[in-house]
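DATA SHEET
Item: assembly model
Revision: 1
Owner: S.N.
Input lines:
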Amino acid sequence: MAILEDIKNAIIEMEPDLAVELVGKAMSDGIPAMEIVSGGLIPGIGVVGEKFKSFEYFLPEVIVAANAFKDSFALLLPALDASGYEPKGRILIGTVAGDNHDIGKNIVIALLRGNGYEVEDAGVDVGPERFVELVKERKPNVVGMSALLTTTMASMRETVVALKSAGVRDGVKVIIGGSCVSDEFSKNIGADGYAEDAADAVTLVGALLGK
Amino acid sequence: MMFNQLDVVSEQEIERILDTSYRILEEVGPKFEWDFALDLLEKRGCKVDRAKQIVSIPRALTLEAINGMTPIAKPQDYPKIFWAPWIGMNIIDFETKKKRRGVIRDCCNTVTLVNRLENLSVSSTGVVPQDVPIEIADIYMAEMLFKYSEKMFTTWTYTTQSARDLIEMGLAVTGGVEELKASKIINYLAEPVSPLKLAKHSLEIMKIYGEMDQPINMGPMVQVGTTGPATLAGAVALQMAENLAGLVYLYCLGSHSPMALGGPMQTSDMRTGRCLYAAPELSLIHLTLVACAHYLGFMSGCTSGLCDANTMDYQCGWERGLSGVLLWAAGSESLGMRGEIGGGEAFSHESLVVENEMGGMLRKVSEGILVNDETLALDVIERVGIGGNYLFEEHTARHSRDFFQPDVFRRDMFDVFWSDYKNVEERAHEKVVKILEENELRLQVSDDVAAEIDRIVRRRAASV
């Protein structure tokens, strides 16, 4: 369908306004929301992901493309919910308690969205209780925690403990990242994985979710 | 002898950048995440949005603070070297070539090495030890440096309690409050969270050290394209704004802490978002930063001479050389942080040794060229005449030790070099082993002071 091809290209060409306009038109033309997602948005963001891996697209460009995807997806969400749509994966990401650094987290979020995942940004200075609260509310598949400071790494362990105590740990995969943490630390605290950088985070999430 | 410093910006351009910094402080406003700081700044005429913790700092107050605070050192006419080692989480294991987490033994070895490496003027522990409780690793690092460093040092302070503990150690070492204030033995790298956030714990630590007149190096780390604009001038303007936000705060506190304005900016790899330590653009922004700091009368500490290379290869050498020499030529007073490798991923003792050699070469060039009767040597030239040989002259013997002699770098003939080939990392490793075998850490304080430092560490360890 030509309009789906145009939507795909709008994502690839990093044109959020055009993508949203075309999605709106497609909806008005009666094309089902699922078809718009699978025929337009997902293929478009898939091409962006491939171009990013080959360094043809740079990160800021991926972010613009991801915004085009996100804004278009938001338009379709009510219709998708009604049709029982399940996203590729739901990820909840936050910077842990006591830590205000978020640039690494934000890059991970952009790349995950750029790879078609639904990502909730929990923000910074997120305590264990707040992570538990959000897991219960949003039911993510993966919880990602970021920390830059050595003094805030401990909060990652506390969050894993809190998720266990709340009885929700088994329902999520937990991944960590940040300049002070490591694979060894991840194993020590009972997380499911450590991502060295943003691209690694996308690979890790895919592996954990079997995508 | 006079060095003309390398400039990349004109005075008008510096003024325009600083004007933008003043406007950032006034129109965008930094966020101070502590009510005490908000109260303080409001009393001094700043407009404060309590809900958002954002402060609008009037230009007049910024300018008053610039004139009111004392620089750690005034910019000099000629380049000088002021080197300090890196402090990171990981170290490169020479045998396995892999990075592993730092431990106390690595800290001991770093201090031992720096004590003996003649071109490193400032010490550190090189790594954050992770075989101690990570929450108080800074206390163990400070303990080692206070007790065993033969040079002044820099270290991390993670928490307000650690700041208090370091002050207590400093009091034990110096003998009293006035002595500690005069000594300036502790220094704090105050790092805003770019863009434009000053975290509560950092403001609290600045207050603790500020009240004891300990030097404060403002160290924002604006990263071009991620936590700062993707255009270099804007990134520097933002960096200077964050520097000045800290300076204004300390001024309003009434602190007599001497300050440096600078900080380790980074660029981003636009392909991946990764923080870079050695891109050529980084040299441009650090050169501009140094120019801005000097324009305001403050010394500037930047990281330079770093590398993104993951091994000590040609890329590493070139990256270090380009940024290190450019910043040195611009008169940057501080060229940190040595021993870093892999874009900040790890610390290497071998690299520290090689960079000590680099420092030696830069020091030699820093001496400049002396022009006087002895060095013009007209009498020698007349005596040697046409076709003669200067090697036999006493003048040559007298000056034969004026020249830099490398320890790790080799100057062999080609065949000799390859007949006994070791790469530079291997040669550096031999020197590391030699220094560590031949030197032990010796207490630089009395037994009583050491005991007091131990007591402070034990008390803190018991609280974890």
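QC remark: Residues 59-82 of chain A form the longest helix (24 residues).
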